[in-house]
Amino acid sequence: MRALREKLTKQNLLEALNRLGISEEEIKAALEITYEQGITSKYNEAGGPDSPAFIILDETKAIEEVKRTIDFIENMILHAKEE
Fold it and tell me: What's the CA gap between 69 and 20, in Å, rounded?
């Protein structure tokens, strides 16, 4: 969501991933999927720390994808509580 509101640099993204325990490779794979769907660019591997991590190409689809992902996570959490 932050990438929709402002520039998300590679440094910002890598710091957030580190705090969440998510690898850069996982993000590259996810961005490859959204790239194939026309939502984002590929991950900006060549750029420096202050360059954008990726570019949103279709804001409407990006918002839909974020909502879908949040719903998925919410369902996982709620179902885990039921078990």
Answer: 16
Q: Is the dihedral of CA 34, 37, 41, 42 positive or negative?
A: positive
Q: What is the pTM of this model?
A: 0.77
Residues 6+ apart with CB under 8 A from 64: none
Q: How do the domains of the chain map onto residue ranges? A: 2-82
CA 54 to CA 42: how far, in whole Å?
6
- Residue 5: strand, helix, or coil: helix
Q: Tens digits of per-residue pLDDT, 22-59?
A: 999 999 999 999 999 999 999 999 999 999 999 999 99
